[in-house]
Structure formats: structure tokens, C-alpha cells
Design a protein that fits this description.
By secondary structure, the chain is of the alpha/beta class. The chain is built from 29 helices and 18 strands. It has a 7-stranded mixed sheet. Strands 4-5-6-7-11-12 form a 6-stranded antiparallel sheet. Strands 15-14-13-16-17 form a 5-stranded parallel sheet, with helices on both faces. Helix 3 (about 80-90) crosses helix 4, helix 10 packs across helix 11 (about 345-360) and helix 11 runs parallel beside helix 21.
């Protein structure tokens, strides 16, 4: 796992490219604290900040291949590199390193840009083909690893994080107002948009090719489901459970490949318990586990974590997190996410990865992806119940089922049946609405936009983020089962845009820690997409098939435990006498007016409600965190004169003696 930077440009731009590339690498040095390098040629340049995990002694990057003349800067891991190396060696390829990076070079030499189809891994890489004078950028299927790009004075610049692109002299910072609207509706921008105007994101499962003829971007993989009327898999659920178990076991096994120790996150829920148990069976030296505990009983899962630690016999460490901890690190969280967020949940993950790094580990397995792949989220049950109720909206018998949703939300459980039905919008959405499953959440999140300023509302007049999302759905989407439709929406937007980004890669890599996700092995994802919906969601039992697959792995209480989503205290983290000074300054009418995105009077009233611990419900909490993080984003990244010193980050333009610079002799090759 690492950080990559680079550019495709003319000779004039590259004449002084060494210093620029070095600054770009330095800006993302937290992603690769072990070493760094920059290599330059006549038309292109690559830079790299390395987190050494595989091929410790010989995996330095950028890495070159002599014939054909290729160079690569690679972020991530190729988990099937052992098998690919054996295939390539049998066909006459000769390797000089033990690194998985070199496998990509040899595979590209054989298959060109189609090499991505053979890679089982989490990756973002830039590969320069000197013979073709062509740059290739690529990103993994599920969007685990990030990659951003921009055009500047005719040059294409790219990097793992946007802060690297901001090191280029003359790069201006402005907010993309449509992207902000998308965040306040969908939790994340729709790629290729980012919150930074004119800076774009390469979408997951896409390849970019750029040469003298221009730029081409294409998708190489697509999550897809069978038609709802298609003959389902006729195997027994026991057979399907065995296949799911075998695939997960192998996905976990190959994600333990590393030349450094690999640990595992342990949340207390089903998903991380399965991953940790499978990993422990392959870890000859024993498994090291890590957890977050919360001072708030509403969010804490330490009892379940302790039960799993006893079952695994693992050496375990936990970091305790309270509201003050979240508020203290929140500016750092925004600096690393590089985008506003509407939840504080990334902050405890930031603290957890810091613990992992302090304990001497830089690779961890996690259970992320299981809910999307095996239908674990409550929103899937909610959509099924809402559909059931909508067919007879006057039936009080049917609406009683709503009381079985979200048992951990005590306020919801106290509502009477009629009020609860109104809260769930029973009868208000058309059953053929392609976004039916998520419409309630989208409305609830978008309610926070009532705090937008008049100028921002005018600028966004006529725009609807949900309409744009609906326009991007696949052609076959309406032919899928409703559960599959809901899974697609969750896996395509929220997973890469928020969970794997703001809550995942950015929080782990803030401390040079690589997360690995067995549930997101593309073989597991493709298998699960073929599982009949009734075996995924059995009535209101989520992850039915996964539970069958893991029935004999876990303590009974963990195996049968209902889904409790990972959450953290939101607006109340910023209330009380210990509230950091930056909160009042960021939300002051003066600074809110200066930034111009929110209504100062409305924000002031919300801030008072928060300080008095009167913010209730999802909308107010999402609004408070979203507004605060947006104001922080503006202060941190625009260099606003009013930016308080207490939220400033260390100067990313410092020079770093670790960065070595060298020429690309092979790039002198004439096409």
C-alpha cells in the first residue's frame, strides 16, 4: 500500500518537474512512510511514497521493466500475484524482484490494458508505456484505492490524494457546488466529481489511457445481477453455503500474503468475526486483533468483542473513544478525507488505525463489504417491509412489522404504529421508483440542505442529485429483483464513495495502515450476486446464507446476533464545556457568511441546539456534522485568512530527504 503521483505533459512542463513531483510525494508521505521516489522522462513522470509490505528489499518504486520499456507507480496489493507469477514464468518471463508490482508490468507486457481483468486485488496504478508513449491509469473493481486527476496548463496530473495535486504551482481551489449537494444527499459525490472544482476522480473499475491522440476512459468490470425471472440456482442452500465458505476462506487466505505481520479488526459483529476466525486458521503464529470501544453504551460493542477474543485466543488491543476524542481529531479527519462528511464515524476509525500503527502493524483485515454483498444492512429489510406495507397501506397488521426494524433506535421504538408508518413514508413512494429502496434515506439526508444559503440554492436551482443517480443506473437494472437493485445502489455509491473512502482508506492510510477486505474479493462479489434473494434475506433475517456458511465457526451468540451498524456519537461530540475552540469559530455567523454556503442565522440556531444537547434525529445530526466539516474543509484547503491555527495541518510543502530522484533512461525511446 502506498501513495502514487505523476503527470503526462510536454517537455516544457517537465523541465522543472522534479521539484514539483517531490512536493506531491511529500504531501502524501503518510501513505508511504518507508521510502519515496520520483522518476522523470521527456513526456511523463511518476512518483511514489512506499509502504513496504511485499518484496521489502527489492520492491522500490517507481519500478521499471527493460523490454518492453515500461514504468509503474502502484498503490495497493495484487493478492493473486503468486499464481500470476507462476503462469508468467512458465511462459518465459523472468522476474528480478519478489514484488507483486513487477507482476503487473509483465502481465501488461503480454495483454496491454486488459491486464486489469486478471488482477485480484485492491489497486490504483499509473503505468507508462514508453514504446507507445502512453500513460495508463487504473483502479480496482470495488473502489478500495483512490485515484484523482486534473488538467493544468495542458498537463494531466494525478495522485492518490487531492492534497498532492494542490502542490502544483498555480492550482486554484474552489468548491464544486454540485458535489456538495451530492454529499448532502448521497453522502458522497458521484464520480468523477469531487468537492474540488476541476479535480476529478477516476471511478472504480475504470481504466484511463492517454497519449498523443487524447484521453479515453472505459469501464472494465460491472457489478450485475440476474433478471428476476431468470431460473435461480437450483443447488441446495447447504451447497451454496459451502461454496460461500470456500470462497471466503480463500479470499482471506490470500489476503494474509505479506512480508510483514497481518492483524485483524474485530468490531463485535458477524462480519469481522468471520474474517478473524478464518484468518486465525491460517495464521501459524497466531492472530493479532484490534477494536474500538465507546464510552457511550449505545455505540459500544466491547462485550461481543471480548467474547470473540476468548474464542480466537488472540492477542488483542482496543482504543477507547468518547465524544471529546472525536471532536479533538475531527479537523485531522477532514484533512485526510478531503471532503465534507455528514457523520463522525470516520473519527474513531482514525484513532483505531493509529493504535494499529503504534502497535507495530501496518496491515489489517476488515469485514467491510459483507453487508453490501450478502444483504446485511437494515435498509434492505426496511425496503422489503415498506414494499409489503405499500400494497395495503391501510393495514395496521402489516405496519406492525415496522416495529421490528432498527431495534437499536430507541426513539423509533417508542412511536405508535400510525406515527411510525408516517416516518417510513408508507404509501408515499411509487413501487416502480428505481430508487424506492433508498428514497427514505435520501429524503432524510437531503433535509439537511435546508441550511444552504440563498446563493447556493440559486446556483443549484433545478438540480436533483437523485435524478442524476437514477440516470446512471444500468440498462438492465429494472429487470433485477428489488433486493438486488438495493444492493447495487449501496455497493456502487455509498460503499466506494463513503465507507471505503472517508471511513476506510483515508483513515487507515492517515497512519500508514493498509486495510484488506476479503468480502470484496471479486469472486465473492460475483458469487453472491447470483445467490437467490430469498437466501440472502430470509423474511427479516439478514445475511441468511452467510450465517449458514459460518454457523460452525463462531460462538452461538455472535453467529445469531442481529446486525448493529457501526455508528459513533455525532453532534453531541461537539457540545459541552470541553468543546474545542474551532467549533465556535467555524460556525460563527462571520465565518459562515464569509464561506457563503450556509445560512448564518439557521446555522447559529442549530449550533445552539447542539450545545444544549437538543439536536435529535438523523437530519439535525447530519446537518450539524455536514456543516461543520464543510466549514473545516474550506478553512483547511482554501487557505482562508480566517483559518484558525488550531486546525492547521503541518506544512505539506516541506522537503523530505527520503525522496530520491532519478531519470527515466527508457523514456528517451522514440516511438
Amino acid at each position: 500500500m502506498c501513495g502514487i503521483v505523476g503527470c503526462f505533459a510536454d517537455r516544457a512542463f517537465l523541465r522543472n518537474g522534479s521539484d514539483v513531483l517531490a512536493r506531491m510525494v511529500e504531501a502524501i508521505g503518510h501513505r508511504g512512510p518507508d521510502s519515496a521516489g520520483v522518476s522523470l522522462g521527456e513526456r511523463a513522470a511518476l512518483g511514489h511514497a512506499r509502504l513496504a509490505i511485499i518484496g521489502l528489499a527489492d520492491g522500490a518504486q517507481p519500478m521499471a521493466m527493460d523490454e518492453p520499456p515500461l514504468w509503474i507507480s502502484f498503490n495497493g496489493e495484487i493478492f493473486n500475484h503468486v499464481e500470476l507469477r507462476e503462469e508468467l514464468t512458465a511462459r518465459g518471463h523472468r522476474f528480478r524482484t519478489a514484488s507483486d508490482t513487477e507482476v503487473i508490468l509483465h502481465l501488461y507486457a503480454e495483454t496491454g490494458a486488459d491486464c486489469v481483468n486478471r488482477l485480484n486485488g485492491d489497486f490504483a496504478f499509473a503505468l507508462w508505456d514508453a514504446r507507445r508513449q502512453r500513460m495508463m491509469l487504473a483502479r480496482d473493481r470495488m473502489g478500495v484505492r483512490p485515484l484523482f486527476y486534473t488538467w493544468h496548463n495542458g498537463a494531466l496530473l494525478f495522485a492518490s490524494e487531492i492534497k498532492a495535486l494542490l502542490q502544483v504551482p498555480g492550482t486554484s481551489v474552489g468548491i464544486d457546488q454540485v458535489a456538495l449537494d451530492q454529499i448532502f444527499t448521497l453522502w458522497a459525490p458521484i464520480p468523477p466529481r469531487t468537492p474540488f472544482r476541476d479535480i476529478l476522480e477516476l471511478p472504480p473499475a475504470h481504466v484511463m489511457l492517454i497519449d498523443g491522440d487524447g484521453m479515453r476512459i472505459r469501464r472494465y468490470w460491472q457489478l450485475a445481477f440476474p433478471d428476476r425471472d431468470e431460473q435461480p440456482d437450483t443447488r441446495s442452500e447447504a451447497d451454496l453455503a459451502r461454496e460461500a465458505r470456500a470462497l471466503l476462506d480463500d479470499a482471506t487466505r490470500i489476503r494474509l500474503r505479506a512480508d510483514v505481520p497481518v492483524g485483524s479488526y474485530l468490531s463485535g459483529g458477524l462480519d469481522s468475526a468471520i474474517v478473524s476466525t478464518l484468518a486465525a486458521r491460517h495464521a501459524a503464529a497466531g492472530l493479532r486483533t484490534f477494536s474500538i470501544t465507546f464510552a457511550s453504551a449505545e455505540h459500544d460493542e466491547s462485550a461481543q468483542q471480548a467474547e470473540m477474543v476468548r474464542a480466537l485466543g488472540s492477542r488483542h488491543s482496543a482504543v477507547s473513544c468518547d465524544e471529546a476524542d472525536i471532536a479533538a481529531v475531527f479537523p485531522e479527519v477532514v484533512w485526510h478525507t478531503e471532503r465534507p462528511v455528514i457523520r463522525t464515524a470516520p473519527a474513531p476509525m482514525y484513532l483505531l488505525s493509529r493504535l494499529v500503527r503504534n502497535e507495530g502493524y501496518k496491515v489489517v483485515l476488515t469485514g467491510e463489504g459483507a453487508d453490501e454483498v450478502f444483504a446485511g444492512y437494515d435498509i434492505f429489510k426496511e425496503a422489503a417491509v415498506r414494499r409489503f406495507c405499500a400494497r395495503q397501506p391501510s393495514s395496521t397488521r402489516r405496519t406492525k412489522l415496522l416495529g421490528r426494524l432498527y431495534p437499536y433506535l430507541h426513539g423509533l421504538q417508542q412511536l405508535n404504529a400510525e406515527t411510525r408508518a408516517a416516518c417510513f413514508g408508507i404509501g408515499s413512494d411509487a413501487l416502480d421508483d428505481p430508487l424506492f429502496s433508498h428514497r427514505l434515506r435520501l429524503r432524510s439526508t437531503a433535509g439537511a440542505k435546508m441550511f444552504f444559503s440563498a446563493d447556493l440554492r440559486d446556483a443549484l436551482a433545478g438540480y436533483d442529485a437523485t435524478e442524476e443517480m437514477a440516470s446512471l443506473l444500468p440498462r438492465d437494472f429494472r429487470r433485477w429483483h428489488p433486493l438486488h437493485q438495493a444492493q447495487y445502489i449501496e455497493a456502487t455509491w455509498l460503499l466506494p464513495g463513503y465507507i471505503l473512502s472517508s471511513q476506510g482508506d483515508r483513515m487507515a492510510m492517515a497512519h500508514g495502515v493498509e486495510g484488506r477486505f476479503p468480502f470484496l474479493d471479486h469472486r465473492v462479489v460475483e458469487f453472491a450476486a447470483r445467490v437467490p434473494p430469498g437466501l440472502q434475506l430470509r423474511t427479516l433475517r439478514e445475511k441468511h446464507l452467510l450465517r449458514l456458511a459460518a454457523a460452525d465457526l463462531l460462538p452461538p451468540a455472535i453467529a445469531a446476533r442481529p446486525k448493529q451498524p457501526y455508528r459513533a456519537p455525532d453532534s453531541r461530540s461537539f457540545a459541552g464545556p470541553s468543546t474545542p475552540d474551532y467549533v465556535a469559530e467555524m460556525l460563527s455567523p462571520r465565518y459562515v457568511r464569509e464561506v457563503g454556503l450556509f445560512n448564518p442565522a439557521s446555522v447559529e440556531r442549530l449550533a445552539v441546539k447542539s450545545q444544549n444537547l437538543q439536536t435529535q434525529g438523523f437530519r439535525d445530526n447530519a446537518a450539524f456534522v455536514g456543516i461543520l466539516s464543510t466549514q473545516l474543509w474550506h478553512a483547511i484547503f482554501t487557505g482562508a485568512t480566517s483559518k484558525p491555527g488550531s486546525i492547521g495541518h503541518a506544512d505539506t510543502r516541506r522537503t523530505d530527504p527520503r525522496v530520491h530522484r532519478r531519470e527515466f533512461p527508457l523514456w528517451r525511446h522514440s516511438a
